TrEMBL record:
<dbReference type="Pfam" id="PF00561">
    <property type="entry name" value="Abhydrolase_1"/>
</dbReference>
<dbReference type="InterPro" id="IPR052542">
    <property type="entry name" value="Cholesterol_Oxidase"/>
</dbReference>
<protein>
    <submittedName>
        <fullName>Alpha/beta hydrolase fold</fullName>
    </submittedName>
</protein>
<dbReference type="InterPro" id="IPR029058">
    <property type="entry name" value="AB_hydrolase_fold"/>
</dbReference>
<feature type="domain" description="AB hydrolase-1">
    <location>
        <begin position="46"/>
        <end position="184"/>
    </location>
</feature>
<keyword id="KW-0560">Oxidoreductase</keyword>
<keyword id="KW-0285">Flavoprotein</keyword>
<dbReference type="GO" id="GO:0016491">
    <property type="term" value="F:oxidoreductase activity"/>
</dbReference>
<keyword id="KW-0378">Hydrolase</keyword>
<keyword id="KW-0274">FAD</keyword>
<comment type="similarity">
    <text>Belongs to the GMC oxidoreductase family.</text>
</comment>
<dbReference type="InterPro" id="IPR000073">
    <property type="entry name" value="AB_hydrolase_1"/>
</dbReference>
<dbReference type="GO" id="GO:0016787">
    <property type="term" value="F:hydrolase activity"/>
</dbReference>
Length: 353
């Protein structure tokens, strides 16, 4: 682990110039980019932030003292948030990682290059934004991206045993009743099946009284909670997250089941331009990966990123890096009240290498 940069956290929130830039994915699906700049023109190039499954780009702007966006803007970066087809800001679709990798991320990168005039882009990617973007990179579909900061999981997903049981045995059962799982059922369960899931979660998750928080743990992992440590969240963020999670398609879980069985990312074969096995095909990128993992992650175990680091390090020694964050889990890496002090400086260092 490298030593973090000493960065002061401002007490006043950064004021942004915010611009929405729609884009079309390669298959015509609508996506959206949000450009964020401070009062001064950026002195550095574009950094794109890519969210995970069933959330939206807003996860990078929680109600904390200083967000990752704040810190990036303060350090002169031109910040771009990508809402890809998994975003709850967009029309719901039964998406796969393959579609995002082949169609969404390459189109988003090209739009950023077109809008900024910069030929090189850096990326900070999280969870299924990370897996799908890693697929894009390894397949040579985003050659403009030279530095990739990945959180939680990238090439080698590894999950707790209970999560493995759920994805292998419970998901086929769920599919008989619903095409989605939705943490919003903790607020409103519209069908008998949704009511049954909500009742099951209430019986088995007693870690807090926030029903969406409890549904998130059921939907995404095995912990209580699965995606953060409660002690890392301030009260405002714990309330705010109720609006930040919604439907995740069963189709995604089916692809993740195939990846878990293989031990690494595999494509489903429905989208041209992607290899089936991303570990046996020569890498089509020279991007440097900086891999981050929370030691308490109960969605994807930290072994996920460790395996990917060892895989990449064998191919190109002493080029990529791995950071194990001892006090963090999954999303508190971005939403934690002290992430500005513990995590973001390390990410900045990786961007500035």
């Amino acid at each position: 682990m490298m030593k973090a940069l000493e960065v002061d956290a401002p007490f006043e929130k950064t004021r942004y110039k915010e611009r929405r830039v729609p884009f079309r994915a390669g298959d015509g699906v609508r996506g959206q980019l949000t450009q964020l700049q401070g009062p001064q023109k950026p002195s550095r190039g574009p950094v794109m932030l890519v969210h995970g499954a069933g959330v939206r780009s807003n996860i990078f702007r929680p109600p904390v003292r200083q967000t990752l966006v704040d810190m990036l803007v303060a350090h002169g970066y031109d910040v771009w948030l990508e809402d890809w087809r998994a975003s709850i800001n967009l029309l719901p679709t039964p998406w796969t990682l393959d579609e995002a990798a082949r169609y969404d991320h390459p189109a988003a990168v090209k739009k950023i290059v077109e809008e900024t005039g910069w030929s090189e882009v850096k990326a900070i990617i999280h969870c299924q934004g990370s897996t799908s973007f890693t697929m894009s990179a390894l397949a040579g579909l985003v050659p403009e991206v030279k530095t990739i900061v990945s959180n939680a999981v990238s090439l080698h997903p590894v999950v707790p045993h209970w999560s493995s049981f759920k994805i292998n045995w419970a998901i086929p059962l769920v599919k008989q009743f619903s095409a989605y799982l939705n943490p919003q059922w903790g607020r409103h369960a519209p069908t008998p099946f949704a009511k049954a899931i909500n009742g099951l979660v209430k019986l088995t998750h007693h870690e807090c009284t926030n029903n969406v928080c409890r549904q998130v743990s059921f939907t995404y992992g095995s912990g209580t909670p699965a995606l953060w440590r409660h002690e890392n969240l301030n009260d405002a963020t714990h309330t705010w997250l109720e609006d930040e999670f919604a439907a995740v398609p069963i189709r995604f879980y089916e692809q993740m089941r195939a990846c878990l069985r293989a031990g690494h990312l595999v494509s489903l074969g429905d989208v041209e331009g992607l290899p089936h096995d991303f570990t046996t095909t020569p890498l089509q990128t020279d991007a440097r990966f900086a891999l981050f993992a929370g030691a308490h992650n109960r969605c994807f175990l930290p072994e996920s990123q460790a395996r990917t680091f060892h895989f990449l390090n064998r191919l190109r020694p002493d080029y990529h890096t791995f950071h194990l964050l001892p006090d963090y889990s999954h999303l508190d890496v971005f939403m934690g009240k002290h992430a500005w002090r513990d995590v973001f400086p390390l990410m900045l260092q990786e961007l500035e290498k």
